[in-house]
């Protein structure tokens, strides 16, 4: 496998990372669809640009070293996806914020690493200590792995791709009732750690953690000038089918829960007063593909790349589920089908033209909301069957 490029992927049991892992291992660049799944995993087909310059080689996939918290997590991943074993090695990182915890990944790698994709960062709104549970793991984990890569990665390490967030670009204090000029990659959220902590609002805490982690990454790149470069993928609300191990209904990832599953599981029972923290989304398969493309696209170097498909609202999700799954009418409220946006909400949009050009221009298209919600619900129903719900 000497000619196969080696990628280190953190947080491999997570929602986004599982889709990235599938793409890294199963990429078939010589075929029309480079993400054709093998039969044993029932992987939903990746949506992708048809003529990206990064997909013209005959490389059959990447060799991947992936971090998870425990050996049990690794066993769960391979139990779901046994065909991945031949190209996948696991390392165990229990605390991403621990100083030097990533050093041995680079020092002891049997084949030097060519790329890093860092996704391990908390996405959990059910926390009380924002500094300890959100901000510190995000910032210290990002700085720590960048420092390890710089010190021990070697001269062949080409690029570090960071899973950031569109919340780093939006203004958390903007009046939601009046749309403003669309956000771009040049914008930064004004929220500070002190403001987030004082607010006791977990969404604000999460927003601060993502912004501060990304800013710390760019600061390290500027101060230490490593041999590799950096690209940051900034998605908005991520929904879509799940490939990660999920033990039960309460283990569904945060964004799929609040944006889709809570309409099915009895958490949301009335439309009045129901809002989302943000009103734009992107499908997880597009997010995964953006990470994989960003490994090798020259234009991604030193860039923030926004990935946003379109509008998502509670009523949009309700209408889509009830349209495609009549058997769920008893579980999913009707709401107000004609009132798409919650009253008084006019969310600011996104100008993603620059990022779209980087990812493939006219050949890059996003999965739409209807397809994404339908595939998410199908994934949830399949999981429920396994859980006995």
Commentary on this structure:
- The protein has 389 residues and is of the alpha/beta class.
- It contains 11 helices and 10 strands.
- The chain has helices spanning 15-26, 71-80, 103-107, 130-152, 193-199, 202-224, 254-259, 284-294, 314-324, 353-359, 369-387, and strands at 6-9, 63-68, 88-92, 115-118, 159-163, 229-235, 237-239, 280-283, 304-307, 310-311.
- The strands form 2 sheets. A 7-stranded parallel sheet has the order 3-2-1-4-5-6-9, sandwiched between helices.
- β4 (115-118), α4 (130-152) and β5 form a beta-alpha-beta unit.
- The longest helix is centred in the middle third of the chain and has 23 residues, at 130-152.
- The chain is globular.
- The termini are far apart.
- The relative contact order is 0.14.
Helix/strand/pairing category: alpha/beta
Q: What proportion of the residues form beta strands (DSSP E)?
A: 5-15%
Q: For the terminal residues, how far apart are their CA atoms?
A: 44 Å
Q: How do the strands of the widest beta sheet line up side by side?
A: 3-2-1-4-5-6-9
Helical run tally: 11
Per DSSP E runs of 2 or more residues, the count of β-strands stands at 10
H-E string? EHEHEHEHEHHEEHEHEEHHH
| Helix percent band | 25-40%
Residue runs with pLDDT of under 50 for 5 or more positions: 28-60
Write down the overall geometry: globular
């Amino acid at each position: 496998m000497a000619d196969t490029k080696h990628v280190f992927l953190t947080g491999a049991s997570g929602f986004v990372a599982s889709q990235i892992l599938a793409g890294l291992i199963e990429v078939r660049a010589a075929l029309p669809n480079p993400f054709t799944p093998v039969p044993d995993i029932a992987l939903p087909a990746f949506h992708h640009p048809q003529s990206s310059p990064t997909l013209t080689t005959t490389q059959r996939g990447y060799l991947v070293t992936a971090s998870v918290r425990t050996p049990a997590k690794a066993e769960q991943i391979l139990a779901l996806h046994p065909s991945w074993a031949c190209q996948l090695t696991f390392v165990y990182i229990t605390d991403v914020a621990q100083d030097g915890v990533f050093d041995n990944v680079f020092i002891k790698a049997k084949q030097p690493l060519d790329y890093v994709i860092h996704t391990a960062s908390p996405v959990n709104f059910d926390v009380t200590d924002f500094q300890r549970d959100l901000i510190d793991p995000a910032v210290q984990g990002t700085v720590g792995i960048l420092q390890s890569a710089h010190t021990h990665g070697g001269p062949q390490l080409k690029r570090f791709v960071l899973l950031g967030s569109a919340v780093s670009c939006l203004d958390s204090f903007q009046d939601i009732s009046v749309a403003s000029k669309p956000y771009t990659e040049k914008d930064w959220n004004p929220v500070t750690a002190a403001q987030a902590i004082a607010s006791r609002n977990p969404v604000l805490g999460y927003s601060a953690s993502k912004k501060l982690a990304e800013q710390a990454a760019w600061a390290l790149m500027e101060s230490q000038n490593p041999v590799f470069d950096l690209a940051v993928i900034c998605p908005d609300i991520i929904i879509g089918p799940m490939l990660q191990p999920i033990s039960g209904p309460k283990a569904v990832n945060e964004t799929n829960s609040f944006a889709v599953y809570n309409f099915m599981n009895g958490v949301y029972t009335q439309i009045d007063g129901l809002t989302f923290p943000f009103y734009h989304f992107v499908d997880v398969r597009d997010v995964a593909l953006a990470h994989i493309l960003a490994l090798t696209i020259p234009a991604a170097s030193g860039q923030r790349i926004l990935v946003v498909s379109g509008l998502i609202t509670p009523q949009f999700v309700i209408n889509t589920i009830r349209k495609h799954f009549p058997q769920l009418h008893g579980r999913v409220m009707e709401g107000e089908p004609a009132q798409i946006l919650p009253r008084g909400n006019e969310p600011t949009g996104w100008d993603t033209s620059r990022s779209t050009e980087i990812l493939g221009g006219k050949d890059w298209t996003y999965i739409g909301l209807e397809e994404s919600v339908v595939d998410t619900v199908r994934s949830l129903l399949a999981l429920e069957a396994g859980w006995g719900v």
